[in-house]
Design brief:
This protein is α+β, with helices and mostly antiparallel strands. It is built from 8 helices and 19 strands.
Length: 298
Amino acid sequence: MIKDGILNINKPEGWTSQDVCAKLKGRLYRKKTGHTGTLDPMATGVLPVCIGKATRVIQYYDRDKKSYHAGMRLGITTDTLDITGEITQEKPFGHVTEDEILRAFSAYRGKVSQIPPKYSALKINGKRAYDLAREGKDVQIKPRKIEIFSNNVTCIDAESGIIEFDVVCSKGTYIRTICDDIGRSLGCGACMSSLVRTGTGYFRIKDAYELSVILEMTDEELEKCIIDPDVTLEKLGIIHINDNRIIAFTNGSSTSARTYKVNQETDFDNFYRVYGNGSFLGTGRIKDGELFPDKILI
């Protein structure tokens, strides 16, 4: 059986994130796979897929920064906020200057209130927003706070109205909405024309595998591509417990401060990667000095 862990996949265009998981599930002969962040079908790029017990750590990727290389087209707005949707309005954009574009991007940084697209996987009263939108129902989505750590315009084609940019942002950010918001601020409208996720937390596109290549690998080749989950949990600190506490920890019992040692402080709500006898056991959380198991991975 293929070992538990994480595959860094470069999602192909036209596939849903769930399509990728389903395809890998069949190839890996595993009942459990899960991805760490949805990409739209038109998007490509980094899609970490967790296998087996590694699906238990997905929650710890919530605060990972995401990075994207995106394209937007001025003068067009669509119902989906991207180039695949139905055009709702067209406006001239020839009057928009490069300085105005750069100022609009510069203003779109820091903590931003953003309204997710009505055609999105966001759940509203238990139903996906895109299902409600396709049914013609009035979708009311509340704005939410996201953070844009950086954005940089990399190319402006004044003739076609195509702008390319790099952005680093928090989870929950919709790049389609960034394009729409900036298009509104410029007065000509805009929609997203392309999207590549270049990174999420530990995972980078330079290390990602094409799905078609992974599917053709032998089991031995494939295993070499699988990343151990503890390596990817960079925000969690490191704790080593005494050998005589390993069985107790993996059985769900807490461990007192005198029988564990903190080797690296955490940056995630007192959660740590826990090791015993040189092996990764799972994750735990310190409360009032005691270490409580959270996710067991052995």
